[in-house]
């Protein structure tokens, strides 16, 4: 928190001159909106929220914060779960929602340049009609800047990688107020330091990302999906590991335990068996359609055969781009729905695949079951 009220007033005044008074807000409600995001951590109010509309605006904000020695926290959509956006020391919350332009789309080169406040769904709506898509999907409608800053991943990471694999270059305003372009659009270049990857996962601590050039992909012409339930968590985990080891080209694969399946069924009025379940999909272009069909018809049943499968509920459906991955979104929404208003915790794990099944069994039996059962479905 700023020590002297008069210097805080002066800072707000100067911010108003730089950005326009409408884009410098210190109302209680807006400050509260920027005090915690989706995390369970204790909130912390910023002194003021600013809405810059360009890289130049961001430079002005950074320089003023520097001059007044005030902390600055970038704020995307506030969907991060680990307290990233909490302004622990007050100061300025820099909301990127006005940095929302899709600057350049090149379907030929398979890349797109966007400002950092563009959201995942906004980008998807622009790309889909062009027959291309950006694959990283953390479920929430996060901003691209926030996704870069947290190194986001999602259900398609098994096939397309996370943000780390899909960002070509960034424009960043450093804490000194300098504008850095991390590299050109060229795919092949070994010149200079790899600054792009330094900023991916930097969680707002190394600078404010103002735009990003992203890798995009042709939309698959056909998608096949399977939903398989298992009698044990361990069997489901083994199937995931072996699917990857065998190089079976799944586009998505996601594990939901029996408790989560129950939640998904209730939330979205679905009728899946309440059991440990793998949802997986596989996409293909016209060129490898033949291979794709043979995968669908032969490999999956052969591969699954003999595994500890309770039931293949909805298997090997073959459609033309209409599988909405409804269950997965249901899972994201359901978890969100369940957690709201309750104490919640989230953390990332680094585990040896050998012990993954056992670990999930432990988490499933102790934490989730207690949580879902007692807090959400009395
Ligand atoms: C229901 C639900 C499901 C989720 N599932 C996943 C998942 O599967 N995988 C996953 O990875 N995440 C997941 N998340 C977490 C979250 O969606 C991601 O962390 C997302 O990338 C955060 O983006 P955001 O725009 O909301 O960023 P914010 O929460 O606003 O900010 C996150 C961090 O990035 C910094 N930041 C934001 N914008 C910028 C910028 N322009 N420049 C510099 N720093 C910036 C902030 O200071 C902060 O440190 C989920 C969240 C929810 C609510």
Structure in words:
37% of the residues lie in helices and 21% in strands. The chain has 378 residues and is α+β, with helices and mostly antiparallel strands. Helix 1 runs antiparallel to helix 3 and helix 9 (233-245) crosses helix 13. The radius of gyration is 23 Å and the shape is globular. The chain has 13 helices and 15 strands. The model is unreliable at 286-290, 292-299, 313-331, 337-345 and 367-378 (pLDDT under 50). It folds into three domains: 5-95, Uridine Diphospho-n-acetylenolpyruvylglucosamine Reductase, domain 2; 102-218, Uridine Diphospho-n-acetylenolpyruvylglucosamine Reductase, domain 3 (2-Layer Sandwich); 222-335, Alpha-Beta Plaits, CATH 3.30.70. The chain starts with a helix and ends with a helix. The strands form four sheets. A five-stranded antiparallel sheet has the order 5-6-10-8-9. The site of flavin-adenine dinucleotide (FAD) has 35 residues, from strand 3, helix 5, strand 10 and helix 12.
Q: What are the SSEs and their pairings?
A:
Layout: H1 5-19, E1 24-25, H2 28-33, E2 48-50, H3 55-68, E3 72-75, E4 92-95, E5 102-106, E6 111-115, H4 120-127, E7 132-133, H5 144-150, H6 157-160, H7 163-166, E8 167-173, E9 179-181, H8 195-199, E10 208-215, E11 217-218, E12 222-230, H9 233-245, E13 252-256, H10 258-268, E14 276-284, H11 289-304, E15 309-319, H12 326-339, H13 353-376
Parallel strand pairs: 2-4, 3-4
Antiparallel strand pairs: 1-2, 5-6, 6-10, 7-11, 8-9, 8-10, 12-14, 12-15, 13-14
Helix pairs in contact: 1-3, 9-13, 10-12
Bound molecules: flavin-adenine dinucleotide.
């Amino acid at each position: 928190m700023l020590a002297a009220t008069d210097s805080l007033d002066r800072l707000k005044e100067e911010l108003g001159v730089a950005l326009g008074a409408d884009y410098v807000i210190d109302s209680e409600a807006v400050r509260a909106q920027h005090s915690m995001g989706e995390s369970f951590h204790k909130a912390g109010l910023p002194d003021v929220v600013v809405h810059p509309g360009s890289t130049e605006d961001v430079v002005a904000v950074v320089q003023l914060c520097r001059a007044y020695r005030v902390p600055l926290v970038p704020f995307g959509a506030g969907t991060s779960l680990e307290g990233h956006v909490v302004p622990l020391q007050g100061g300025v919350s820099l909301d990127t929602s006005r940095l929302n332009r899709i600057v350049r789309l090149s379907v030929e080169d398979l890349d797109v340049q966007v400002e950092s406040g563009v959201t995942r769904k906004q980008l998807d709506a622009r790309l889909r009609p062009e027959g291309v898509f950006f694959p990283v999907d953390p479920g929430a409608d996060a901003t691209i800047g926030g996704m870069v800053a947290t190194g986001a991943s999602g259900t398609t990471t098994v096939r397309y990688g996370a943000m780390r694999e899909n960002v070509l270059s960034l424009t960043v305003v450093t804490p000194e107020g300098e504008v850095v372009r991390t590299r050109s659009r060229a795919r092949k270049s070994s010149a200079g330091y790899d600054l792009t990857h330094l900023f991916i996962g930097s969680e707002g601590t190394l600078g404010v990302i103002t735009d990003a050039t992203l890798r995009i992909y042709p939309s698959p012409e056909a998608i096949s999906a399977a939903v398989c339930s298992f009698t044990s968590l361990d069997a489901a985990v083994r199937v995931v590991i072996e699917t990857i080891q065998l190089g079976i080209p799944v586009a998505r694969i996601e594990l939901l335990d029996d408790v989560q399946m129950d939640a998904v069924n209730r939330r979205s009025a679905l009728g899946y068996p309440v059991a440990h379940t793998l949802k997986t999909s596989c996409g293909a272009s016209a060129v490898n359609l033949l291979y794709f069909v043979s995968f669908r018809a032969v490999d999956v049943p052969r591969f699954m055969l003999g595994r500890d499968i309770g039931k293949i509920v909805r298997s090997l459906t073959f459609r033309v781009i209409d599988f909405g991955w409804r269950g997965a979104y249901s899972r994201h929404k359901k978890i969100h729905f369940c957690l709201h208003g309750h104490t919640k915790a989230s953390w990332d794990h680094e585990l040896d695949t050998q012990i993954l099944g056992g670990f999930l069994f432990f988490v499933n039996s102790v934490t989730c079951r207690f949580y879902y059962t007692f807090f959400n479905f009395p």
